[in-house]
Amino acid sequence: MGMDATIGRRVRDAIERLTPRITFKQFAESIQMTPDALSRAMKGERGFSTLELAAIADKVGVSMHELATGQPDPFALRLAARHTHDNGYPETDVSAENPTLETLALLYRQAYPDLGSDLFPLPERVDEIRGALGDGFPRNFANRVEAALGVDVVRVPMSTRSEFSFTLNGHRVIVLSAGTNWFHQNWTIAHELGHLAHDDHSNNETTSIGEHAANGFAAELLLPKSALALIDWQTISLSHVADLLWDWGVSTKSLDIRLEYLHLPVAPTIHNELSACSTQRFLRLHQRRTTELLSDVITERMHEAATRRFPAALLKAHMEGIESGQLLPYGLAWMLGIDPDAIDLGTLNTAPNLTIGELDSLLT
User: Fold this and answer.
1) 211-244 burial: b if 16+ Cβ within 10 Å, else e
2) CA distance 304 to 288
3) What secondary structure, in 3-state letters, does 17-35 show?
4) d(Cα 165, Cα 198) in Å, to the nearest integer?
């Protein structure tokens, strides 16, 4: 790269911001530069090579684009990851080194290498989001979010409940941990929509909302105050409550906490059952559908929530990349949970899932 004192100043400032503090001599040695070469480059007396700037960017946690231009990288992955989900689940810290996040970021960059970073604004108000999603959206929440809001939803097995959302290459993405609790996944989608609608991934403190506010956004989206206030919770039957839980796609815990938060009078039997029963047990005990039918639909919903899910457009982009010779089949195989040898763009045979570690080893 050519000599540029402004790049040198940005490098100097980035090194000085490191915690714990480190001397310029120590920093130079850590990236295999001589202290003299680093000093002269920071003064603009020599240029940084591309490899040197890449090593510096990796060490200080700033993109090469930002060091070179002074502007945020328009293609940088932006992550919201400070989550306490579903009214009391343990807080999860998702870092940029999360292996699932790294893999997904790679898949998106491969699929959309030339896409710009511009994102159309999402509605900020809960009622606008609900209106865009339409009636009955919780039953097909992920599909509605993609179709109505242009937000991708990924569901993939993870070792921890580290749901999160990010923006990258002009895409907003919500990532769910595959499991049997569809109601937890619904809460995650609603929670992440709160972050996305307020552009939390831009690190703009004037618009971002915290975790408590994101949970409030989710609560009002899935359990709107206006709808709950119309119900007589002192006379409602347990079977009616079960039907509502099924239709709203929320957990017993979420409904119980929401009713308490809104100070709505609730019959003791309703409160006791909501607080004591798991969601699936409550449904099996009290839903008015026949036992046989109920068993089938609950099991079907559990199976769906435990199944890998990727946006059709992302899968198509990878298939086209493979067909054109631009991409290898490993990413598509991982998304589909099949062996790479089964990729034939016409015949996809089931095979054991690739683990995230196996995919990483193939792609790197």
Assistant:
1) beebbbbbbbbbbbeeebeeeebeeeebeebbbb
2) 22
3) CCCCCCCHHHHHHHCCCCH
4) 13
Q: State yes or no: pLDDT of 36 exceeds 80.
A: yes
Q: Record the pTM.
A: 0.74
Q: Look-up: residue for tokens 């939803």?
A: 153
d(CA 106, CA 73): 16
The stretch 108-137 carries a mean pLDDT of 87
Rounded Cα distance between 106 and 314, Å, is 12
Measured distance CA(68)–CA(214) in Å, rounded: 35
pLDDT value for 134: 96
Q: Is the pLDDT of residue 204 over 50?
A: no
How far apart (Å, rounded) are the C-alpha atoms in residues 320 and 221?
37
Q: What are phi and psi of 156, to 5 degrees?
A: -145, 145
pLDDT on residue 357: 54
The two three-digit tokens of residue 115, written as one number: 């896409």
Are 313 and 335 in contact by the 8 Å Cβ rule? The answer is: no
Summary mean pLDDT of the chain: 83
Q: Per the structure block, which two tokens stand in for 315?
A: 């899968």
Q: What are the sequence ranges of the domains in the chain?
A: 5-69, 78-222, 312-363
In the structure, what pLDDT confidence band is assigned to residue 290 with cuts at 50, 70 and 90? low
Helix (H, G, I), strand (E, B) or coil at 173: strand
- Class of domain 5-69 (CATH, top level): mainly alpha
